[in-house]
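TODO from last week: model Putative acyl--CoA ligase YhfT.
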Amino acid sequence: MSNTEFDLSCGALAGADTLPLAWRDGGWVRRAQWRVDVARACALLQGLPAGDVALYDTDCYRACVWLLAAWHAGRCVILPADATPATEAQMRQRAVVLLGEFAGADQCGWARSTCTVPLKPLDPTLRAVAVFTSGSTGEPLCIEKRLAQLNDEMQAQDSVFGATIPADALVVATVSQQHLYGLLFRVIWPLVSGRPFAAQALAFPEALTVAAANVPQVLVSSPAFLKRLPDTLDWAAVAAHHVAIFSSGGPLPAATSDQIRAQCGLAVREIFGSSETGGIAWRDQPSAAWIPLPQVEVALSEDGLLQLRSPYLPSPDWFVTADQAQFDADGQFRLLGRADRIAKIEEKRVSLNALEAALAQTGWMSESRVIVLAGERTELAAAVVLNAAGRAQAQALGHAALGRTLREKLAQRFDPVALPRRWRFVDALPQTSMSKVREQDIKALFDAPVPAARPRYPDITGVSQSSDHVVLQLHIPHNGAHFAGHFVEQGVLPGVTQIDWAVHFARQYFALPPRFCGMDAIKFQNVILPDAHVTLTLDYRVDKQQLNFSYVSEKPQDSARAHSSGRMRFEAA
């Protein structure tokens, strides 16, 4: 049920004068002071050119004042994710006024202003905020929300969670209000429920153990923060101060959820949604199915993708997401992975298409492919085919320095977590016989285990494959582990290593039987030296369970030069 006393259409007029609004600098800012600040800021805005405003401010109270001042002035507030020079330039093209912490902000504050304007209720249909998302096309999309959509969504969510959270609970956060999740839970939810919020974000886990204002706290956080909580944290203090924990932005690891529940008795409530859709569903443990939020209708599209209808969308039509899903009989659902090229790194959405487009704009490459490498740390990796200008840069700088230079160029447009950490510079991207570039083949370019800083396998610089035939372009690194001790005067790749590599790569591309049972017609004709570029051809005869292999290289003025070849036989265990 809607809380009419704090309906967002009341704007800064909502709530009693003495009701705390924000905890800031060790004391309460009450709603009476907030109203004065909003009236002053609104007066400043009325003296500036009409149009949308762009706001970036790390202080949530200041952001809240500017937000309400803009609404009372009838303006839409654009919320960029950062205040970098590139972002500021983009905002100048979209907004007539920049507010807050931009280097070239038109207004930083209202403290020196003595003018005020009378505040009136707000129009629920007002274009209230605009946020940015990567979007499935790779181009940044501007998502607009009307005042009523913001109000109704958090009123609906409060109807699900609010009864178990004290009315005076302080909302503390580790996330920024510049993103929709942070805006909704850190600003809009406190405003429409009458709860206060903390002006400063929590930067360190230890801050969770400190009581603020001697009231219960609600933590609004993300998996990136929660999964880094140290074992040495004073969990008893966390349990004493907090009554609820929310997480969104990506899936919460089950081990993290279980640890928090065991240590302080709180179930982390995950919220699933996006900038385009708003909130979609919730759950209290990672193994559970997602429960749709009130007024959100969900279903499965013909392509097996999650689709929804919601009053928080700009259209009453079905909105098809890029999330593959499976429904339970009770209408709850489970997510099966993304179907587009939007990755989430540290809970930040990263468009792989946008990164590749930015790399192309350097003028140093003919093509590139960015992928996600999952391991102890999820990171991005880029496989790059350099053009003549790029090869000249590589020759002048070296590949390692070239990778750092490309990262520096991307850092002008992208968040640091969105930058590739690993690079491969190849002659061509691996393709199938149908000229398709597959992610698994790109990942193979980075599959080089390194014991004691010496690679055990060669770099794959190209792949061509059919059902029973694979051709791998290999670069044999000069510091490979197999060169160590194999002839002091000149390293030579051992024949046994060539056989081992043939089997190793064949098992990646063919369903070889598990048991190796013999070799035939093995020939070693010419040695393979460090830093060589060779072609490994693998043919598998399923009917005979036989693998044929050959290593060949080409010299600039010679025909193909054979190094080794042979047949290997396999059988079921």
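Done. The chain has a mean pLDDT of 88.
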